[in-house]
Design goal:
Layout (H helix, E strand, L loop, with lengths): L1 H29 L2 E7 L4 E8 L2 H6 L11 E11 L2 E3 L7 E6 L5 E8 L9 E3 L4 E8 L2 H5 L8 E2 L4
Parallel strand pairs: 2-3
Antiparallel strand pairs: 1-2, 1-9, 3-8, 4-7, 5-6, 5-8
Length: about 160
């Protein structure tokens, strides 16, 4: 009887910790700035969540089970440089598009798969970038996005 009660207390405590961490996760995502990005050549407009802080960039799209086709997450870095990404705890396949400070595509990585292992591969831009955009896998190919292409942000300076 005592063992069963301890199990119930343990399960309840575990549930409380998971619920508390999940609600904290939701608050950090809701606090992200919103915006749009436009690819003029394709007429493609995506709604964005903008990850500007280190904490927001570290969280990224972790633990999400889906991403709407008209949405993406834009990462804004303090300095232009070689930028890196990994798929740790990211549950959806992604294409990654890197932009320079003059808002031109400088590097693309397609079809990154989720990583549920302890150690995940790190992927980097091939040249210096100021911004990184995560979109659903297949968008780059479907929309024929390419290097040197100019994009427009409506909320960034």
């Amino acid at each position: 009887m005592l063992k069963n009660n301890l199990k119930i207390v343990y399960i309840g405590l575990l549930f409380f910790v998971l619920l508390a961490s999940w609600s904290g996760y939701n608050r950090s995502i809701e606090a992200m700035e919103k915006g749009n990005i436009y690819f003029p050549r394709q007429g493609l407009n995506l709604q964005l969540e903008i990850a500007k802080t280190e904490k927001q960039r570290a969280q990224g799209l972790m633990f999400r089970t889906n991403l709407a086709l008209n949405k993406g997450m834009l990462f804004v870095f303090e300095q232009e440089g070689i930028q890196s990404v990994w798929m740790k705890n990211t549950l959806i396949s992604l294409d990654i598009i890197f932009f320079s400070s003059n808002k031109k595509i400088v590097s693309i990585i397609q079809g990154l798969k989720p990583c549920k292992q302890a150690v995940c591969k790190i992927y980097s831009s091939t040249t210096k970038a100021k911004y990184m955009l995560e979109v659903n896998s297949g968008i780059v190919k479907k929309m024929k996005l390419g290097l040197g292409q100019k994009i427009i942000f409506d909320t960034l300076k």
